[in-house]
Design brief:
Number of domains: 1
Number of strands: 8
Largest sheet: 8 strands, mixed
Helix content: 25-40%
Radius of gyration: 18 Å
Order of helices and strands: HHHEEEHEHHEHEHHEHEHH
CATH superfamily: Alpha/Beta hydrolase fold, catalytic domain
Strand content: 15-25%
Distance between the termini: 48 Å
CATH architecture: 3-Layer(aba) Sandwich
Structural class: alpha/beta
Strand order of the largest sheet: 1-2-4-3-5-6-7-8
CATH topology: Rossmann fold
Number of helices: 12
Shape: globular
């Protein structure tokens, strides 16, 4: 199907707050679980990686400093959200021995979506340059994002990192959960009052039109209780990644909705946690770039 087939119900299909009825409850659940996780983890907080007000990141160090680094990008439809309330996702990764960086970024409408994406690219560049501080291999960065963060991770996979003086293979893989990968329907829903997406921006900012630049392994997931349009975004982008040569693990978590996905991942046995940790262990088994002939 095309997203145009959802025009009769576009607000509910593409706006999780319109589809789900317990948004405030799930946000509070996520906040409480993240606060508890922060109390159990070793964290270094609010490190500045850029000039804009919200260009701050948190580091959760784990392991022996040689494994891939996870860079997590939070969601919130590019207009809300905060890194500290996603810490629940860092705990299963830390327990598995992987250092995690939670990126904060400025939000629409204070910045444009183009500027917001630029901040994410700056954050990844900072992690590569400061890998020793983070506690991992800066040549093997694994992106991880939920919702708008899934979109931003997908756009980073399409970026030409050599133009920034970084290795072309600096991004070793990615997990994108409940993302939105074709932006044209955003033009027709109420959240765009703050995002201020313009028709001329859609092509350059839609991952469906910009596949991964390299064939890295990706995990793509959505909740079975999300709107059909959001599930379709995930399955359609999985096909795009496969055509680009990426090994794809596609997961539909039957019991989860868009807003329950993160709180549910407090459980290390959650299907997304298992898939991400499995992918990270596979990357960790590779010979680090610094040790290759």
């Amino acid at each position: 199907m095309s997203w145009h087939d959802w025009q009769h119900d576009i607000e509910r299909q593409f706006n999780p707050r319109a589809w789900e009825t317990d948004a405030d409850t799930q946000h509070e659940r996520r906040r409480a679980l993240s606060e508890a996780a922060r109390g159990r983890l070793r964290g270094e907080y609010d490190i500045r990686y850029g000039r804009r007000p919200r260009q701050l990141l948190d580091i959760y160090r784990a392991g022996d400093g040689t494994a891939p680094i996870v860079v997590y990008v939070h969601g919130g439809y590019w207009r809300t959200g905060e890194k500290e309330n996603q810490s629940v996702l860092a705990e299963p990764l830390a327990r598995a021995g992987f250092s995690t960086v939670m990126l904060g970024y400025d939000l629409c409408p204070a910045v444009t979506l183009d500027q917001l994406l630029s901040e994410i690219l700056e954050g990844i560049e900072w992690v590569h340059a400061n890998a020793a501080r983070v506690g991992g291999d800066g040549a093997r960065i694994y992106l991880y994002g939920h919702s708008a963060g899934g979109h931003l991770a997908a756009m980073a996979l399409a970026h030409d990192w050599s133009a920034r003086g970084l290795p072309e293979d600096v991004l070793a893989g990615a997990a994108m959960v409940s993302g939105i990968y074709e932006l044209e329907p955003v033009l027709g829903i109420t959240v765009n009052e703050l995002i201020r997406l313009k028709p001329g921006m859609v092509d350059r900012l839609s991952p469906m039109r910009h596949p991964p630049r390299r064939p890295v392994p990706v995990v793509l997931a959505a909740g079975g209780r999300e709107s059909p349009a959001f599930i379709e975004q995930t399955t359609d982008f999985a096909a795009v990644c496969e055509r680009a040569g990426c090994p794809v693990e596609l997961i539909i978590v039957a019991e989860d909705a868009h807003l329950t996905m993160i709180p549910s991942q407090a459980d290390p046995a959650h299907p997304v946690n298992r898939a991400v940790v499995k992918a990270l262990h596979a990357l960790a088994a590779r010979v680090p770039a610094a040790e290759r002939d």
